[in-house]
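On to my pick:
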Amino acid sequence: MMGGGEIHCSADARRLARRKLPWMIFDYIDGAAGEEHGADLNRAALRDIRLRPRCLVDVSRRDLSAEVFGERQGAPFGVAPMGMCNLSTPGADLMLARLAAKWRVPHCLSTVSSTPMETVIEAAEGHAWFQLYFSGDGAGSMKLARRAQEAGYATLILTVDVPEVGRRPRELRHAFRMPFRIGLKQFVDFALHPEWSLRTLRAGAPTLANFDGVDYAFDRTESRAAADWGWFTNLRDAWPGRLVVKGVLDAEDALRLKNAGADAIQVSSHGSRQLDAAPPPILALRRIRAAVGEGFPLFYDSGLRGGEDVVKAYAAGADFVFFGRVLQFAMAARREAGLNALWGVLLEETSLTLAQVGACSVDALGPDNLA
């Protein structure tokens, strides 16, 4: 069955993807840092949040749009930055870009995407933001920021929670690295997943498309520990567009970033891929909202699996949210049909949850919706 009809929730997409993807690729997408207790803890925290059902409220007309930087988005969630998306299936970056164009939501393109930033923003019809890592001494990152500006990106997402790449045992067990080094174990892995392997072979192995290896090369394992507040100030001075800072879990940091010129903060634990002992981001979201006050744009990702999670995040203080790895699973499972199917599921789940809590839009959500 090549359509998306088997996908009724994000867990279905993950289950199907696990069958199709080589173990190395599935564990790269699905894995987290350390013992992965942090990922489990955030999911538990999200699950344990209870919503407050209301009755006899007219919710017959529900609006699923949301406002970001003064513009209405066609859905209450966007696409989080994810590196090497084309590992899930060839062309994944462009599938996400077309989805963003259709729904008028941000597609946050990763620094380490497999498709050039210029190609993606064109396919997304302008609905794309560029995610930036600091690396080395920061000079190469500034080059990428200038290139993004020239390509037409109006929003930059600076990810600040990777001073060093976290240890992810599932990746290490498979010797995952870019570019791939194929040994006997990897050869057997790929041979046992022929559909993915043949499709990837025809398309060509994904590369780091935003680097030419001459003007600026990228080393995934390179230290980023030299990033500091001075470099942030330099980036803020150089970047003329909107600057979102992603990977913030501390209220003190959030307030300082607000005062230093950030246009928005994205509360995130990097999908629990960096620090196993990090606090659950959904709980940090409430503390950060209290610190920065109402009215300051606050975005959220990490651990979202369905529409009820979307409503919980908005009620806890988010102004907009982003889905990540579940979209990759949908594409791995059923390619673009799977992506569109899961997106529709997430929209329906969000709409039904709004009805249950007596709200007609995500704009109306707040602490009163939490039990």
Notes: The longest strand covers residues 242-248. Strands lie at 66-68, 71-73, 77-79, 107-109, 128-133, 155-159, 242-248, 264-267, 298-300, 320-323. The mean pLDDT is 93.
